[in-house]
Amino acid sequence: MSKRARPTVPLVCAALAAALTLTACGGGEKKKEDAAPAGPPTTMAPMPKVQPAQVKALVGRWVGVNKDYFEFQRDGAGVWMKDKQQLWKGQAIPDGTDKYRFSWEGGDPQAASYWGVKVTDNGAKLVFAGTNQSYTKSKAK
């Protein structure tokens, strides 16, 4: 009676697959130096002192076509609202002629050109740089 030899190909394939799996995932713990480098920490500049005359053009409510609105006080404090939900609350910071950037988390982002507004059409319109949408100044009640 002759003994039939077992095929070794499936065993070799299984061993090869296991080896590839172990080496593909790194085969161990990650080291601190293997971690991807983090970007520099984001820091905000301190809030500048805003004078009422600097934000006079912003004071009031500005309504968009989507029924969201910005509302600014005499001191530059403002909110952005949509359906009774507050989207932003902070300070408008003068950033050139009829241009204002918005504070973020109590600081001045300084370089976020998309996070602010510009007053246009002789004070009748406000354009939010983040969406390029226009807002119309509502009449005082």
UniProtKB/TrEMBL annotation:
KW Signal (keyword) present? yes
The stretch of residues making up the signal peptide is 1-26
Show the segment(s) annotated as Disordered.
28-49
Specify whether Signal is a keyword of the entry: yes
Q: Which UniProt keywords apply?
A: Signal
Can you say what this protein is called? Lipoprotein
Q: Which organism is it from?
A: Actinomadura macrotermitis
Give the lineage. Bacteria, Bacillati, Actinomycetota, Actinomycetes, Streptosporangiales
